[in-house]
Amino acid sequence: MADYKEIISAYQDLPGGIIEAYHAIQKEYSYIPEDAVVAAAQAFDISKARAYGVATFYSYLKVGKRGKNVIRICESAPCHVAGADKVVAALEKELGIKMGETTQDGKFTLEFTECVGQCQATPVITINSKPYGDVTADSITGILAGYK
Amino acid sequence: MAEEMRIVLRNYGKIDPLKIEDYINVGGYQSLAKARNISQKEVIDEVKNSGLRGRGGAGFNAGMKWSFSYGTPADQKYVVCNADEGEPGTYKDRIIMENDPHTLLEGMAICGYAIGATKGYIYCRGEYPYVVEILNQAISQAKAKGILGDFDIEVRMGAGAYVCGEETALLESIEGHRGEPRFKPPFPGVAGLWGKPTIINNVETFANIPVIMEKGADWFKAIGAAKYPGTKVFTLTGDVVNKTFFELPTNATIRDVVFGMGGGVAGGKKFKAVQIGGTSGGFIPESMLDTQVDFDSMIAIGATLGSGAVFVMDETTDLVDVIERITKFFEHESCGKCTPCREGTKRMHETLKKINSGKGSAQDIALTERLGNVMTRACLCGLGQAAPGPVLTTLKNFRPDYNAKLG
Q1: Contact B344/B373 with Cβ under 8 angstroms?
Q2: Are residues A83 and A111 in the same domain?
Q3: Other CB atoms closer than 10 Å to residue A86's CB: what's the count?
Q4: Which among A27, A70, B75, B384 could disulfide-bond with B341, CB atoms 3.0 to 4.6 Å apart, if both were Cys?
Q5: What spatial distance separates the first Cα and last Cα of chain A, rounded to whole Å?
Q6: CB B241 within 8 A of CB B262
Q7: Tell me: the pLDDT tens digits for B286-304?
Q8: Chain A residues whose beta carbon lies within 8 Å of the beta carbon of residue B94
């Protein structure tokens, strides 16, 4: 795994590059370690409060540990009326955790998201940003099998 | 019934989006060459005369906007593409970028020449990492061929903040800050990214530019509605037979969209409502379906064209439940900078939750209506101003649905 300090230094000279740096860290770690926010503050020469403020403003970024595979379920109106709640129930049952939680083995985290722009096939979930459309309670096991 | 007409999606399915040669073989980048052979002012006049208005939701004349940056002297200017498509139910920009990325690059380069900018940014939503890859490939192909000349384009990723679709919040985000909207004026055309003159247009707007340069303003102006000419890409969701996308001239009616191309309500059920323009759009009843979809006709019925998202609901839909979900969305997405939005979206969600759970009163409805009217006028940016739209239009057009839930 690449060190977050190395990742940050690659973006240090990019104007406004802190968000790009956070994306790159998250791609590697699946989240942004707390210490990486402090390192980013130093590298981009802004206060820790500001660096933390940016990292926590955006819902796609997550400061603090979460699972290796991040499952996000869209709850925007088109997915809502297409039965997103049934998908949520099936995922919670399959993984034995509630929304917002991470499995004990650290493999999966369940999160809500707003629209991910794949509305031709509602309800939609994403796993590590890869979209899966027309998800049903029955198709969950098959989809997750590829990540176990 | 209106027939599909593909301008921005003209190359959809016809070229390999990852091959610049394919784009060039269908006439791609000739409009850029044509533009560079005439004066900057002539390019701007052509766009202005075509009547093209922004396809991101605000509907401002694109050429007019360009003229503001052109007329502002600066050592650096920027062209920014708003690809932060976050309106629930919208995926038109993704379809354009996935299938014809070079048309976007060409549109931006023409704008760059017209206003005198050498640097462009595409701000693409973080939920589309696979689109970012396509865009980066397209940019490196164009650079390798030297086809963009001195115009450089860079992709920046959003990170899941709906408010960044607002142009000044988007600029803040590119600069590496929290995506909070700025006070206007100054407008970005004069003082935008890093304080420099900046043109921000939507993906669909830029995708129209190469065609306008190729076929001319008069050709474009003759298509669709007179005051909002051209086409619009629609994406259909909800209880509709064809959950898909298509492009129609702007003089098509809502009925053409939902019952023509859309194939009508799914499962043989009856129509209840349609929400157009994304989650901030108004809810439209059956009696208004013969309205034209162009910007001004939609405003006239208290609705919006917005992003072109079309969310169809059948007779079994619990509208108040959908509205509660929408108010939750806005509470979550409010950036918190201005009080009417930060507090207003929260209170509105609270009240809708109460009404939806059967505990609301007539007084709650009256308060919600009053709060919505205050937010429409007092919020700093489009997010807060538009947030009460779904609540206010359902209160107006579907009041019995609320009354049935009162405790």
Answers
A1: no
A2: yes
A3: 14
A4: B384
A5: 20
A6: yes
A7: 999 999 999 999 999 999 9
A8: 117
When CB atoms are compared, the residue of B243, B309, B325 closest to A80 is: B325
Instruction: For residue B357, give every residue at least 6 positions away whose Cβ sits within 8 Å of its Cβ, in sequence order, or none.
Output: none
Which residue range(s) make up the domain with A27? 4-57
Pair (A37, A95) in one structural domain: no
Q: What are phi and psi of B396, to 5 degrees?
A: -80, -45
CA dist B335 to A49, A54, B58, B129, B343, Å? Answer: 17, 12, 20, 23, 11
- Strand order in B78-83's β-sheet? B152-157, B119-124, B78-83, B198-202
Helix (H, G, I), strand (E, B) or coil at B391: helix
Cis amide leading into A123 (omega within 30): yes
Q: How far is CA A34 from the centre of its chain?
A: 16
**ipTM at complex level:** 0.96
Which pLDDT value is given to residue B57?
83
Residue with tokens 């790009």: A20
**B313·A59 Cβ contact <8 A:** no
Map B201-225 to HEC letters.
EEHHHHHHHHHHHHHCHHHHHCCEE
- The confidence score (pLDDT) of residue A148 equals 83
- A135, A90: one domain: yes
Residues B77-104 have pLDDT tens digits of 999 999 999 999 999 999 999 999 999 9
Report residue B146 as tokens: 């030297």
CB B61 within 8 A of CB B241: no
* Interface list for B 276-295 with A (CB within 8 A): 279
CA B111 – CA B43 distance, rounded (Å): 9
Same domain, A138 and A92: yes
Angle subtended at Cα A61 by Cα A55 and Cα A67, rounded to the nearest 5 degrees = 130
